[in-house]
Amino acid sequence: MTDSLEAAAVALVDELNKISDDVERYQAAKTLEARLDEDLKGIKAKVAQNLYEGRTWGQVGELLGVTGSRAEQISRAAR
């Protein structure tokens, strides 16, 4: 992870920890988690799609550290 991404992640956690109400902090964490999950899923799908250009799914899987079939599944998340 780049230093700027690490700093951004730390800043997000710090902001969540500033919320004094436990229920509100939990809900904010849950909302952020859902947003990040969806956005990261799309990013990973696009990466897999980009890597597939000129490669087999097996080769893409090798690059990503997963099986070829899993790489193909990851690529479908953005469709």
Please characterize this protein's 3D structure:
- The structure is a single chain.
- With 79 residues, the protein is mostly helical.
- It is 80% helix and 0% strand.
- The chain has 4 helices and no strands.
- The chain has helices at 3-17, 22-52, 57-64, 68-76.
- The radius of gyration is 17 Å and the shape is elongated.
- The model has no long low-confidence stretch (mean pLDDT 95).
Outline of the structure:
The chain is mostly helical and 79 residues long. It has four helices and no strands. The longest helix is centred in the middle third of the chain and has 31 residues.
Distance between the termini: 26 Å
Strand count:
0
Radius of gyration, taken over Cα atoms and rounded to an integer in Å:
17 Å
Biggest beta-sheet profile: none
Number of helices in the DSSP assignment: 4
Q: State the helicity in percent bands.
A: over 70%
Shape: elongated
Mean of the pLDDT scores? 95
Helix-and-strand structural type: mainly alpha
Q: Low-confidence stretches at least 5 residues in length (pLDDT < 50)? A: none
Oligomer: single chain
* Percentage of residues in DSSP E strands: under 5%
Order of helices and strands: HHHH
Task: Considering the chains and any ligands shown, give keywords for the structure.
elongated
Describe the secondary structure blueprint for this structure.
Elements: H1 3-17, H2 22-52, H3 57-64, H4 68-76
